[in-house]
Design brief:
This is Integrin-like protein. The chain is mostly beta strands. The chain has helices at 16-21, 131-134, 299-302, 442-445, and strands at 54-58, 71-75, 87-90, 107-114, 123-128, 137-142, 149-153, 168-172, 181-185, 190-194, 207-211, 218-225, 234-240, 252-257, 270-273, 277-281, 290-295, 310-314, 329-331, 348-355, 364-369, 382-386, 388-389, 392-393, 399-401, 418-425, 434-439, 448-452, 454-455, 458-459, 465-467, 483-486.
Length: 487
Amino acid sequence: MRKQHPRPARLALATAAAAALTGGLLNFAAVPATAADANRNYEADFNGDGYGDVAFAAPYVKLGDKGFAGYVAVVHGGPAGLDPAKRTVVHQDTPGVPGTVETEDTFGSALAVADLDGDGYTDLAVGAAGEDGGEGSVTILWGSASGLANGTTVADPEPAAHGEWGKLLTAGDFDGDGRTDLAVGTGSGHVYVIKGGFTPDGTAGAAQRIDVPDQAYAIDAMAAGDTNADGNADLVLTYRTDQTSSPSGSWSKGVAYLGSSSGPDASVPRPLNGGTSIALGDINGDGYDEIALGNVFTKEDDHSGSLGGKVVVIRGSEGGPVNGDAPMAELTQSATGVPGADEARDGFGSAVSIADVNGDGYGELAIGVVFEDLGTTEDAGAAIVMNGASSGVSRTGARTVTQNTSGVPGTAEAMDYFGSDLLLSDVTGDGHADLTVTAGFEDDGIGAISALRSTATGITTEGARTFGPGSLGQPRSYGAFGAGLIG
């Protein structure tokens, strides 16, 4: 039977599916791990213990009597994987954190990770796009030997020019000066890159404003990586244009700005496919980051050519992303080697992530299929992991994981939306990227996380864990726990 979902407003990260289907207010920035360090398969280590950590957000949760206030949580990694007993939960009433818990602040609507002050500990940038009636805010939570502690507000350079400051976030050294910069998306069609030099007292560098082409009226997803291996981070984003003015009728587009000594080079935008989720990482092991773009919109919606969603992988090279008539891969569930079937409104591509799972030097590609039916169980959701190879995305050995997979705790239920977000990141310290998956609407919108480890043979369900807000000492209430999954 054909699914009758309303067309999603955007599915980019972590329960964006749930947000869209419930009239959600926000969009989320997809910021999966990149291949910046081939020997370190994670981005976030907030306490500096050598194990990758994962940050989660629950931007729609009610705190006290304040609905949609939001919090973020960090679960620390270790030899056995993510351990909910080792966690930090932060909201705007946490001592040392700027602001106050208020209705519809949606603290955690976007996340980015990087060592922003250069002290050796990863910091967490948090967007609250609903702050102050939709003006938005960005807060940096500082890493330390004890984990996240205290916070600093990142000033908006042009508050009168837009709303929803902090709607999207990503970080990278775009100008190659050795300091990490922070890119901030807004509710309009432009992005600000705040140059590095961040300090806990509020110091930051100058801001570069980037106006997205084609009269974009919304930015859907944003990420950073190094597609040309020059040491400067490149900025990649997707955006929406006026569908009625587009000759093809397709209203989702993408663009890459290569890093340069002055920051992202906005004078030479590199056109890309559109999409609703982004990941960067080296799939074929040549040292250049590929760009994976997931587009959940259906054939009827934007002429993507797929009933249930598509993932396009664009090759990196010395000259940057190689786009055109022959991407590295165009994946649907009817493509060779991709498990499942291309069915209307499956949401294939709801989330994407790239990292080396089996330690062979090639990045695996994880893909969320948020509305996948399992037998007669509608919208249970699934995650697919495809192998990397010297030739690109391998068409052999793909693995599907669901809540019905043997060894995965829990049971697949209708509208769980397993795969609404996912992340490949090494949380065990063994050099293999592990798989973390959000079920964004588990238990009617409470949300849950499944954490699976990996070995030299790939993802394993041995020792798999599933946990929700109750495991972190938080109320089990509607809140989209797991939105904004990053590490």
